[in-house]
Amino acid sequence: MSDNPVFTEKRPVERTLREIDFSELVKGKQFYPSPASWEDEVLYFLFLDRFSDGLESGGFASLDGMPVEGNDSGRTTLLFSPQTDAGTADRDAWFEAGRNWCGGTIAGMKDKLGYLKRLGITSVWVSPVFRQVTGSGDYHGYGIQNFLDVDPHFGTREELRDFVAAAHQSGIRVILDIIINHAGDVFAYEGNAQYTYQDGCEWPVQGYRRHSGDPGSLPFGRMDFENTDGAVWPVELQDESTWSKHGEIRNWDCFPEFLDGDFCTLKDVHLGDAPKDPALAWDLQRRIREFRPSNALRHLTEIYQFWIAYADIDGYRLDTVKHMEPGAVRYFATAVHEFAISAGKENFYIIGEITGGRSYAASILDSTGLDAALGINDIPDKLEFMVKGWRSPGNPDTDEQEGYFDLFRNSLLDNKHTRQWYGKHIVTMFDDHDQVGVRHKFRFAGDDFRSELLLPVVLGLNLASAGIPCIYYGTEQAFNGADHRRDDDSYSDVFLRECMFGGPFGSRQSVGRHFFNESHPVYRFIRDVTALRHDHIELRRGRQYLRQVSATGFDGDFYYPQPMNGQLHWIIAWSRIFAQRELLCAVNTDTDNGLTVFVVVDSSIHPPGSSMQCLYTTADDFQHHAVTVEARQGSSIRITVPAGGFVVYG
After folding, report:
1. pLDDT of residue 409
2. Tens digit of pLDDT for each residue in 538-575?
3. β-strand 187-189 against 626-628: which pairing, if any?
4. Would you place residue 295 in the very low, low, confident or very high pLDDT band (cuts 50, 70, 90)?
5. DSSP readout, 570-636?
6. If 0-12 CB within 10 Å is exposed, 13-18 middle and 19+ buried, where does residue 276 land?
7. For residue 280, is pLDDT > 60?
8. Which H helix or E strand runs over 530?
9. Cα–Cα distance between 68 and 51 in angstroms, integer?
10. Which terminus, N or C, of the chain has the lesser number of Cβ atoms within 10 Å?
């Protein structure tokens, strides 16, 4: 592979799946291998329209480490200055801009591979790149009109393939966000009226839309048109049987409405047949056993096999798993895994967006063949609000699932026979683009200035505790998007989707200034901790134990930290143990005071009289130093954690 792989071949976008020659696509191609374990990866989720337009200069370097300066041709966007640029945009105009396309591109994303590599990112999760309904404002990418093409706002298929090749050359894998549950608003119901789900009624359809807002002026069936701007493509998906046609979901927890209804205006795809009796909703095995795949599901499966062959994709994040029959997910995952293995990707990962609790996620993973779960509702809540001092970290002395660390233990309760199961199959993150279930949405740092001071705490936990860590774009620049409206929560998710490249919707109510600042303290913190994680397998694959702490060090005065009067501003410590090696991590959720405590360690690995080295601390005067293990509560060490800080000993 060349140092700068570029694919110049441009082929017309297939109008039908029959035009795809898979044997030609894979012939002689050396596909990029899967990782040995996805636990070793650090994911970065970026919203393509909001990430980069390639016009930024200053503050960051190219892939080869050369500073990108303002005198570079065409680079007109300067680095954001909090002193002069924050709060300068008209808020109403700024918010309105955030509701529409802003201008991020695949070329801009490729331009920032050096920025991502130096941050310590090993896999980039990219929001959907596929062509959206013509004229729509679906900048988010979840309203697909052509499943075989890239949206022209983002670039071309060739640019996507070039980006993936360049990412691989940099040691970064690419995960695409994909959808099989629904397409965009590609057809109109009769009279272009809004229909809602009612007892499984199938509603009449006016026709396919030529573009967004069209009342359905195209025939509702297969079309032999040269112009592919309207309806849905490839042509196989134009069959009337592709669609459920039950109208919009109104009760998001009512079975089978949440399976068969339209996801707002996005049109539900009929993926197959399964029992619809609400009394059988709990019986996943029967629903899977009796599931029969539809032609639409077969076509969509082939489409996403195509993208693996065409662009050498390394994994998929599968959207809205809750809204699909488990049998459909199982069919899709099996076929995609087999295809990827045949191409040499032995560990192609499919990460499912599975809303709900831990046990439900485990059952869905087991029954469908998905590799990992994302969106478990306990994780962001318990991680964020533990750090902010409002939640318990957990208590290993009980079987209750009350705290964040409880999520990664007691796996036998879910019939998992290794306590490391959740670490291998759960993607952990504390910020995202949706925040499902939250009315007035805000990023981690968006609710209070103190929260920004806690970013090293929450990131230290995210990167050094169990699970596959994922960082949401902009966190490394302390983005603080928040919906502070009181009388309106419409489009609240816009505030989670500021532009890294500035444009009309930059973070901190700014315009025209970019945020690719490699000197930002949060960027540098993530860079340092991901490097530590890379060097120590304990932090990636180790067993995890919440540790008791003590202010006095007296035997019997050690305890698992718990909120007092509803608040916890104290030390939270945990160990990661792998092959008789222990690393002790600790965070301080008090942003005003550094704290010194005794922390229990494993006495068989670190007996009294032995020593442990400080490998990392957020203290400004950090120097490597050793501490002696003392005979307190078995074995313990005395550590100091800076205010709002993070330390690692080993």
Report:
1. 73
2. 999 999 999 999 999 999 999 999 999 989 999 999 99
3. unpaired
4. very high
5. SEEEEEEEETTEEEEEEEE--SS--EEEEEE--TTTS-TT-EEEEEEE--TT----EEE-BSSSSSE
6. middle
7. yes
8. helix 521-535
9. 17
10. N
Instruction: Characterize 20-57 residue by residue with b for buried, 16 or more Cβ atoms within 10 angstroms of its Cβ, and e for exposed.
Output: beeeeebeeeebbebbeebbebbbbbbbbbbbbbbbbb
pLDDT exceeds cutoff 70 at 410: no
- For residue 352, list its beta bridge partners: 318, 373
Strands 144-150 vs 130-132: parallel, antiparallel or unpaired = antiparallel
**DSSP per residue over 10-28, as a string?**
--PPPSSGGG--HHHHHTT
Q: What is the reported pLDDT for 435?
A: 84
Q: Give the gyration radius of the chain's Cα atoms.
A: 25
Ranges 3-17, 158-172, 307-321, 397-411: which has the least confidence: 3-17
Q: What are phi and psi of 529, to 5 degrees?
A: -75, -35
Query: Domains plus CATH for the chain?
Result: 32-184+293-533 (3.20.20.80), 539-649 (2.60.40.1180)
Within 10 angstroms of residue 612's Cβ, the number of other Cβ atoms is 21
Q: What's the Cα-to-Cα distance from 629 to each of 299, 574, 602, 603, 646, rounded to whole Å? A: 61, 16, 10, 9, 20
Four-residue CA torsion sign, 396, 401, 404, 407:
positive
Task: Check residue 238 and report its DSSP letter.
Answer: G
Q: What are phi and psi of 404, to 5 degrees?
A: -60, -45
User: Which of the 8 DSSP states describes residue 291?
Assistant: -
What per-residue confidence (pLDDT) applies to 9? 64
- SS3 state at 195: coil
Distance CA 12, CA 9 (A): 10
Residue 342 neighbours by CB under 8 Å, 6+ apart: none
Q: Which residues are bridge partners to 196 per DSSP?
A: 248
Largest CA-CA distance found in the chain, in angstroms, rounded = 81
